[in-house]
Amino acid sequence: MAQAATTPLSDALSDPVQMGWMQGFPPPPDKRITQPDSNFFSFPKLRWSVCHIRELVPTAQVSRGLGAPTPLPYALDESIDALTFTPLNSTSTMTWQDALAANYTDGVLILHQGRIVYEKYRGCLDETGQHAAMSMTKSLTGLLAEILVAEGRLNDNARVSSLVPELQGSAFADATVRQVMDMTTSLAYSENYADPNADIWTYSAAANPLPKPAGYTGPNGYFEYLQTVHKADQHGQQFGYKTVNTDTLGWILSKVTEKDVATLLSERIWQRMGAEQDAYMTVDGIGTPFAGGGLSAGLRDLGRIGLLMLQEGSINGTRLFPDTVVERIRAGANKQHFAQAGYKTLEGGSYRSMWWVLHNPNGAFAARGVHGQTIYIDPTAEMVIVRLASYPSAKNASIDPTSLPAYQAVADYLMKAEQTP
Amino acid sequence: MAQAATTPLSDALSDPVQMGWMQGFPPPPDKRITQPDSNFFSFPKLRWSVCHIRELVPTAQVSRGLGAPTPLPYALDESIDALTFTPLNSTSTMTWQDALAANYTDGVLILHQGRIVYEKYRGCLDETGQHAAMSMTKSLTGLLAEILVAEGRLNDNARVSSLVPELQGSAFADATVRQVMDMTTSLAYSENYADPNADIWTYSAAANPLPKPAGYTGPNGYFEYLQTVHKADQHGQQFGYKTVNTDTLGWILSKVTEKDVATLLSERIWQRMGAEQDAYMTVDGIGTPFAGGGLSAGLRDLGRIGLLMLQEGSINGTRLFPDTVVERIRAGANKQHFAQAGYKTLEGGSYRSMWWVLHNPNGAFAARGVHGQTIYIDPTAEMVIVRLASYPSAKNASIDPTSLPAYQAVADYLMKAEQTP
């Protein structure tokens, strides 16, 4: 029953319960997912691991505080499942429901005008679980930075080395905070997950909280690694998606506030948005939260993040930060800088403060993470979609064709439904 | 400024903020507490580590669920600080307040008739933190077992091997579940933390979720280790405090319920007692929660556990389990079996279902953990005391002299105050 390397197991066949991962006391050896030797982040193990990160590595709490959560209101609409759309580069249509399996969806939430109209849990996730947010973590780090900018506590024109002297000898030294926030730094650094020699793997080795292998002489942790990154060309010329920018931004935030990113995220957002669950962040070997990708959180809590962005900084009648924060993010960045990076599924877009801005007619913008994670905010349709997934391959370019048109179809439907009550 | 080996730093001098542990971005190398080489569980690092276990090792969530917490009512009594008592083996008196520093207290909560009369956070702990419960975890595992016994789902007269066939060749095979619950198994196993060759350290190596050292050929995880424990003499003859009993009990619970102990603790207790915070448990390399000592939890949530025991299974007007569960625990076990173990500070006591029963005039019983952890329940005084600490040495025999008489003094005071309103 060998699978061809190019044909991963289907959504149904790779379901983690179906696969039997980590079931039994003890689980049979061939059904265990462990650190460090079982490659827990590879498909199909990934379908279990995305809900169990904390059981595999050390993590820092993102506390929701101690008060009562503020429940999200419901107005469920069962007709969403039957909505159809045409995937990118396709001629036949697909239903919303079919797209769930096509995308190896673990959880999906749709909010319209602040109410939950659709909610589904699949795979490893349920409503009490937390799912890896992957690079959506970046958007929260970027949001925290924009908040500090709006408060005048962080000057986005400052040189990074003026805030983090340890980065003096690195590529980041003469970059501005804004260039880091918008990822227009020019770094000699490859983040091609498909290339086993890419710098991202050296970075991962430095960041791994487990003991370093015998003879390891590389950097230990994010902060040491960032100091080793070299400059490629002039900063500010084009967008280049590199996670190290976000960890540099996290370091900047910690230098400015004297708090780690997990604590900031708790104090500024999680404790104030009516969250139902604590979230958490993975940490490196010296306790630094992974600002570029370490968050795990509940589906509805990520929905609250989306609402907060849709509602320009307010939720449950409470303002968490100035509306200018969202306005600046939503406006996007330089489209020419973005175009040079060649994102075929996001043509005409830009990347601003670690958020993906589509510049489409509805003004949508999104947090996005590998393997299919998204918080998609459509201000025109007053819609938020959160989708958590464990798609076999990392690249969203494979996932967007059955996702972005689906989100637009839901937006169109919700706007139409609104007009014909 | 070298300290003599026998004179640990004082409470004030070992305060983790004062010591500077893990402060700064990054913390200076000599102020880091990391896995695996810095011996994070040794004093004075312990004073930081007890509040940060999850940042050092993988953990499983003990979910509080998603509802609103049920706040505990307050009736604070400032005069408790000045209460005096005479420490065991002492002639001079000490105040309650002075006992806090003497015990390296991180958090203490006193409940009287269901209301908080005293609450203090010190050291690494605050009200949003979780502190290592250490062996108090055992009492929760024992409580879960008693609940299943009361429900008829677990026969405490059954042989262990009938429930866990994997233990057939081990010391536990012909022990009854009750002997495991009361720790009257006879095991060739040493748990003297002061002895570097004690079996507890082999056990710890097996349980460590980090990768095994090169050449390691020992057992991996709790379940494999338990199978290697040999019998010493006949079971049921005397009490012998050995953590492996609790992990065997945890395995039994999982075989019976098909759920791990963290999930059981969440479903049976944490989701139903109005908890404010999730708790968590450390796990071994195959994801097994440490039933014998892995819990970390918030101070007030441990107070809720105490209330639940004081109120014989009910809290906030909800019954979580039959009152017979607490009655059976509180009644204690064979005092002769206990006496042979030679606990000088607990003479006349017994150990029942992983709870310490004092058999004192007030009928007090307690969960206890090394380095000074306790949930102390005094049914006569309608009092619960939770004390979380990071005392330099593990043994409670060093901590009891300034603890047990202090608890009695508070009980006496509360009963007297009640009579003279």
| The named CATH superfamily of the largest domain in chain A | DD-peptidase/beta-lactamase superfamily
- How many separate domains make up the residues of chain A? 2
CATH topology of the largest domain in chain A: Beta-lactamase
Note poorly predicted spans of chain A: none
The gross shape of chain A turns out to be: globular
CATH architecture level-2 label of the largest domain in chain A: 3-Layer(aba) Sandwich
Instruction: Identify the most extensive interface between protein chains.
Output: A-B, 49 and 49 residues
Figure out the total of helices of chain A: 14
Biggest sheet record of chain A: 7 strands, antiparallel
Q: Class of the largest domain in chain A, according to the CATH hierarchy?
A: Alpha Beta
Distance between the termini of chain A: 52 Å
What is the number of beta strands of chain A? 15
Could you report the average pLDDT of chain A, rounded to the nearest whole number? 95
| Structural class by secondary-structure content of chain A | alpha+beta
DSSP strand content of chain A: 5-15%
Radius of gyration of chain A: 21 Å
The percentage helix of chain A is 25-40%
Q: So what's the oligomer here?
A: homodimer
